Amino acid sequence: MAGRVWRMTTVELAKLSRQWFVWVCLAATVVLAVLGVYASSTEIEGFWRRTGFDYVAQGVAASYLLLPMMLVVLGSRSVSAEASSGTLRTVLTRPLTRAEFVLAKIAALVVLTLVFYVVTLLAAEATAWHRADKFRPLYPTYPGGGGREIPSQTPARTLADLTAHTAKNLSLLYLPLLSAAIFGLFVSVLFNNEGVSVSVSAIAYLPYAMCAGFHPEYFKGMASTHVAKWLPQYWSVEPMYKLKQFVEGYSHGFLWDPTDVARAVLVPLMYVVVLSAASVAVFAKRDILV
Amino acid sequence: MVAVLRTEGLTKTFGSLMAVKALDLEVQEGDIFGFLGLNGAGKTTTLRMVLRLIRPDAGSVQLFGKDTDDSFLDSFARIGALVESPSLYPYLTGRKNLELLGRLSGGVDAARVQWVLEAVGLAARGDSRVRTYSQGMRQRLGIAQALVHRPKLVFLDEPTNGLDPHGITDMRKLIGRLAKEEGITFVISSHLLYEVELICNRIAVLREGRLAVQGEVSRLLAEAGGRVRLVARPAEVARRVLLGKSVGVMVEGDDGAFEFEGGRDGLGALNAALVAAGAEVSELAPRAITLEEYFVRLHRTEA
Q: Which end of chain B is more exposed for a tag (fewer CB within 10 A), N or C?
């Protein structure tokens, strides 16, 4: 089974790497990340000078304007596009179970999300490295918020700090993004039409994109109505929102508390697992009539 | 002979429509098997059930002697299929399509890909993206992807769709060659009955989801009897004599020739009657029925 999933995953990645749409999406997130760094002001709230990490956060935040939505769209095309074009029946007449087919699609999205996020992060970091003269180590437990610059304690930038920052950022923000892609995949196994699948998943995930993007206050407003808490996106976005605050250096609540960390990892992971299992179960019972 | 494909009681309904009902098919190793029927007869639905694209409501499918519900992965590694239109990745080249689809069947080497491209007449365009292909070229590539991994059983649903006359002839020759050289068994669904008759040794005909007939082409045509072609002048005299002989369903062609069902028996007496009536007989010959005529007669009879 592992061999067949691996083969299908390599085929899927080979296909993705040859689609101009994927490259356009990747280029757009990189451009947003770079612009986000350059467009941000040098000061925070008119007082603190930005460090390199602050710039990185601005770049990543800018890319969030599109990144979750792009991953939702790419996920929502993964099966429905094959159904629309008829290649689904070509592939499914190969020695491959339905479950293996979906698992390979999931594996490809795992890699795709990682590539998108790493490239975006690296673009933001490279730009920030160019713009900022300080990459102060993060002190998340410092009273008043992690990542804030303390003028008397501002060592010169080091690659080790940047690497540590990247690792933290990836470990905590990757799974929410992956959950977006897997949500798209789940929608895509429900529909034979690519356009319908993309539209439905995009609309259903619009709150997610807005909350995780440039406008966290919008999400807070929704949460205050007590409606948003009934949306599954809420529980993926809430830790993401807090993490974003932390990464940006505005955090007053997320201080590496073990509960928050566990929730930040486990909640989106739970959605990834549940949506993946649901996708496999639904697709296994579907008649391929297209 | 070993049955490479056997279906027993295969049944599928879509709502109130009985698409396929209790279908028992048997394809022997080495067959080039014609799978025939009018539009909507259930051919593609049957192929989809055999290929596990849709689940039958009842019945079973055996490939290479094994039930596909128990074990289909081994069987599917040895089959190739083109179901309906050729569906390939338009943003990839023809060669890349074959490489990737071949990889899903366990992997194929570059030499095999090149050989298949040459076999279907696409060697010159193998490195072009599929989106630039004509319909006929896509059809050729669709057939190529069904063959690239050296299968032992190949399902081709309307393989000559979109092909020009030259391409149809090439495809017929290719199928015959592969059946002989690589020992491939073919199941071909087609409406081109002339082509089916030329290449297939066995056929099954579906009508409204049920099996109307199944067997060797030569035996079925022989059992169906032949036709007699008559050219005589004046035509009015010939027509009067034939009506008097009650030859059954008679067709009068634009060239003045008559055709009616019958064999060699009684042709001497008919010739004598025509001459006695004053007709000049220039042609009076029995001939075997064609598959197309058999098909039409079968549906007319059942209707």
A: C
Give the separation between CA B94 and CA A63, rounded to whole angstroms. 36
Nearest to A289 among B54, B88, B103 (CB): B54
Candidates A94, A192, A283: best to mutate against B (most CBs of B within 10 A) is A94
Distance of alpha carbon A143 from alpha carbon A252, whole angstroms: 8
Q: Which distant-in-sequence residues (6+ apart) come within 8 Å of B247 by Cβ?
A: B228, B260, B261, B262
Q: So what's the ipTM on this one?
A: 0.81
Q: Tens of pLDDT along A186-236?
A: 999 998 889 999 999 888 876 655 544 333 444 444 443 444 444 444 444
- Among A93, A192, A283, most B C-beta atoms within 10 A, so best to mutate, is A93
The DSSP symbol for A281 reads H
Element (H, E) at B71: none
Residue whose pair of structure tokens reads 């008097």 in the numeric block: B244
Q: Got the DSSP string for B209-241? A: TEEEEEEEHHHHHHHT-EEEEEEEESHHHHHHH
φ, ψ of residue B254 in degrees (nearest 5) = -65, -25
Neighbours of B78 (CB within 10 A): 18
Q: Which amino acid is at B70?
A: D
Closest chain A CA to residue B143: A90
Q: Angle CA(B132)–CA(B133)–CA(B137) in degrees, nearest 5?
A: 170
CB A14 within 8 A of CB B100: yes
Residue B81 near residue B51 (C-beta atoms within 8 A): yes
Task: Provide the residue count of chain B.
Answer: 303
How many angstroms separate the CA atoms of A183 and A16, rounded? 18
Q: Which two tokens stand for residue B60?
A: 């079973």
Predicted model pTM: 0.81
- In order of their start, the domains of chain B are 3-221 (3.40.50.300), 224-302 (3.30.70.100)
Dist. CA B119–CA B129, nearest whole Å: 19
For B155, other C-beta atoms within 10 Å of its C-beta total: 26
Closest CA to A216 of A225, A207, A204, A205: A207
C-alpha neighbours within 13 Å on the C-beta side of residue A164: 12
Distance CA B95, CA B129 (A): 9
In this structure, are residues A209 and A218 in contact, taking their beta carbons and an 8 Å threshold? no
d(CA A88, CA A145): 51
